[in-house]
């Protein structure tokens, strides 16, 4: 998964991530050890700033 530079840190991805693999610090940051690339976060990103590999 990749979070693009256009991320505004709204936090939608954090709320919907079932593995709690994303935190926001101004922008979203992914913990790749926890992320399973399920794509749920990308579905709920209002500006399409998340790309699933």
Tell me about the biggest sheet? 2 strands, antiparallel
Shape: globular
Structure class = alpha+beta
Number of domains: 1
Which radius of gyration do the C-alpha atoms yield? 9 Å
What's the tally of helices? 2
Describe this structure in words.
InterPro entries: 4Fe4S_Fe-S-bd, 4Fe4S_Fe_S_CS, PSI_iron-sulfur_center. Residues 1-23, 26-53 form the 4Fe-4S ferredoxin-type domain. This is Ferredoxin. Keywords: 4Fe-4S, Iron, Iron-sulfur, Metal-binding. With 53 residues, the protein is an alpha+beta fold. The chain has a single domain, classed as Alpha-Beta Plaits (2-Layer Sandwich). It is built from two helices and four strands; from the N terminus they run βαββαβ. A two-stranded antiparallel ribbon has the order 1-4. β2 (22-24) and β3 (28-30) form a beta hairpin. The longest helix has 5 residues, at 12-16. It is globular, with a radius of gyration of 9 Å.
């Amino acid at each position: 998964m990749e979070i693009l530079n256009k991320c505004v840190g709204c936090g939608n991805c954090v709320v919907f991530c079932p593995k709690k693999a994303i935190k926001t610090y101004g922008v979203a940051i992914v913990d790749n050890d926890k992320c399973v690339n399920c794509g749920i976060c990308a579905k709920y990103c209002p500006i399409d700033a998340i790309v699933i590999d």
